Amino acid sequence: MLILFLIAALVAVVATALVITRVNAVHALLYFIVSLLAMALIFFLLGAPFVAALEVIVYAGAIMVLFVFVVMMLNLGPHAVEQERRWLSPTAWAGPALLALILLIEVGYVLWNAQGVNMPNAAIPPVQVSLTLFGPYLLAVELASMLLLAGLVGAYHLGRRRLHWEAEEEDA
Amino acid sequence: MNHIPMEAGLLLAGVLFALGLVGVLVRRNIVFILLSIEIMLNAAGLAFITAGARWQQADGQVMFLFILTMAAAEVAVGLALVLSLHHRGKTLDIDAASRMRG
After folding, report:
1. B53, A48: Cβ pair inside 8 Å?
2. Which of A129, A156, A171 to mutate to test the interface with B (most CBs of B within 10 A)?
3. Cα A45 to Cα A36, A75, A122, A164, B69, distances in angstroms
4. B55: part of which helix (H) or strand (E)?
5. Residues of chain B found within 8 Å of residue A128, distances taken between Cβ atoms
6. In terms of pLDDT, which residue wins out, B56 or B70?
7. How far away is chain B from the Cα of A116, in angstroms, using its nearest Cα?
8. Residue A15 CA: distances (Å) to CA of A1, A67, B1, B38, B49
9. Partners of B29 in beta bridges
């Protein structure tokens, strides 16, 4: 099982190194999603299946989609279609697809040998995580909800279009 | 050798954090800076998970949930700032925002 961890770690490091060296934002996002999937596999191998699922659903599923939305919004215009075609050329998605294929093979190996493979680290079940989260950490959960509310209000305030008279007032 | 040693997990977390830090320092595009901050937060979460697996406690995973929450809030505000900057200056260069007034 250590070899699975090492392969996933290598994929994560390579994908992350490619993220910070890409020129194109969409290519960097593709590699970052692969890096997050590798991290999810590492979490699973470390005995944290609940967090591994959340990594895929929340990080790769929600936060990255937010990034993709913004990157696409920044490039609206007559050149958008042609640019999108250029972004998603086969050479662009071949790299992330190859790295993701390695991870898929690893997941397939783990699932196929589900009986024979004993997990390297004993898994901490979601029940225990939930009991800890809503037991000793209850105050922190409330603080996190306040943080999310502040983020919501802040994003709405920054993202709304300025009204006409407000813009005139600020420019004056 | 069946057990994943704690040192390996912490080493991976350190490498990923360093990569994110390099990204923040080197890149001037604000979208890439936000991505690098996400990389660093993720590496910190990996360190928590590794420690939680080492001592078989659920606290590490709970802390990762809080990091996840903070990352979501940070991304929402950060991307709103990106849109605002792009709307105002037609650029994503972080240096263009170095002379803000008020």
Report:
1. yes
2. A129
3. 14, 39, 9, 55, 23
4. helix B30-55
5. 58
6. B70
7. 13
8. 21, 17, 27, 14, 20
9. B93
Instruction: Note the ipTM here.
Output: 0.90
Q: Which of A142, A67, A120 is nearest to B71 (CA)?
A: A67
Say which residue the tokens 């990352």 belong to: B71
The Cβ of residue A149 has, within 10 Å, a number of other Cβ atoms equal to 11
A121-137 residue pLDDT tens:
678 888 999 999 999 99
SS (H, E, C) A103-159: HHHHHHHHHHCCCCCCCCCCCCCHHHHHHHHCCCCHHHHHHHHHHHHHHHHHHHHHH
Measured at the CA of A30, the angle between CA A107 and CA B39, to 5 degrees, comes to 85
Largest interatomic CA distance in chain B = 59
Residue of B nearest to A41 (CA): B46
Contact A52, A40 (CB under 8 A): yes
CA angle A138, A144, A149 (to 5 degrees): 135
The first and second tokens of residue A112, run together, are 């196929």
Alpha-carbon span B78 to B86, nearest angstrom: 12
Distance CA B59, CA A139 (A): 14
The per-residue pLDDT for range A61-111, each reduced to its tens digit, is 999 989 988 888 887 656 666 766 666 677 778 888 899 999 999 888 887
Asked whether residue B93 carries a pLDDT value surpassing 80, the answer given is no
The phi-psi region of residue A122 (left if phi > 0; otherwise alpha if psi is between -120 and 50; otherwise beta) is: beta
